[in-house]
């Protein structure tokens, strides 16, 4: 028989593992950001901001397995509630601990996205070379940040006052309708407002996932399998190209050895050749470094396509956010997570691997593409040479991607995210030979899904946050199709491309010798 002591020990287990994961996340973010930040232009405030923003997003994602664990261990495998969980108030208290955790973390995310990161970004954008007028920097940064605060306020207001249900009395007066709105706001404790704001950010994160993660997911595995070109061959090729360009420069300079001026065409060719020679020499220096640190790398099943196919065939339609009732297509990942969940924290480990896979593939996409605003490339992301503003942009994008990862995990394993390993008893009538003997029923144990009775299965708090508004779920559904299309296009492009250079993305024509010195040291 379960006792309050058992309740306490299991609850402590979940939160203890979460604390350990939290410390690991902080260490990972510190190492990851330090790897990419510029050594010459690094700023303490931007570094701390980037580390904290990325860490908060990952910690929010790490709360999901704890949420699932807490709702799952309320029940026995036969579908009945444990003795201590039979009381609805006890279950509510446990759910509230997770709910307040989400309130705190999501509020901090709003603070980061709409106040902290914009302020720090514009603070460094307004920085003068002599760095003399700090007050003017702060003033201008605050001026631009106010726009983000206004957007955040608008999202919170929309989420607050757009009711999901109409007032119970259709003939009520306007004042009664207003009263109903405030009563709904009070009863939800701001859940709708926060959910709408976070869902809006998740929507932006979906665009980043379609742009960067889908491409990175196709590029990263193939690059690992194909490896890179031979460093010795690249160095030989670089030496030959350098000698050829130097020879062409010498021929042009020989024309003016007797004091005659070069023609306009020759001067233009000389400038182009000298610029090309600088790039080749920088490539040569980077190839030397790569040769010293040589590490040739040697070499997925995507369950998202299975999920969206299931939704397309068996969901309840667009007006419900394409929600699925029951199990129609067998989802291997969903089944695996459901099997691992009772052996906590094995499912935690798998969820962490999936989340980090999304982070690394997103980073691969960002590194290959850079950060763009339509057709204008804003920043390049390279190890040890990423400027403070680019670092903040990078962490903003990764934050939004990780935020959307919670929904992506729901796409991969919907039953697991909604109910964990909960089961419930379904009463089914038994056929009787003699109707006078009355009706007999039998209890059948079923896995909880969207078709289960509300009083028999407890929904995770994460699901409530992400699916409060059905139209977001509908947009996410079509976003998954866009993700699949971009992934397939990226896969075709990656297959057609040859092996990449060992210094691909490290040297560009617009780089300076200053950036080379920064990389070498």
TrEMBL record:
Write down the membrane topology: Multi-pass membrane protein
Task: State the UniProt keywords alphabetically.
Answer: Cobalamin, Cobalt, Coiled coil, Lysosome, Membrane, Transmembrane, Transmembrane helix, Transport
- Where located? Lysosome membrane
Which Gene Ontology terms of cellular component type are present? lysosomal membrane
Chief location: membrane
Q: Name one Pfam family in it.
A: LMBR1
Sequence intervals crossing the membrane:
12-33, 45-74, 103-124, 144-164, 191-215, 312-329, 349-378, 390-410, 469-493
Q: Which InterPro entries match?
A: LMBD1_LysCbl_Transport, LMBR1-like_membr_prot
Per the UniProt entry, what are the Gene Ontology biological process annotations, in alphabetical order?
Answer: protein localization to lysosome
What is a single molecular function from GO for this protein? cobalamin binding
Residue stretches in coiled coil? 263-290
Q: Which family does it belong to?
A: Belongs to the LIMR family. LMBRD1 subfamily.
Q: What is this protein called?
A: Lysosomal cobalamin transport escort protein LMBD1
- Organism of origin is Cyprinus carpio (Common carp)
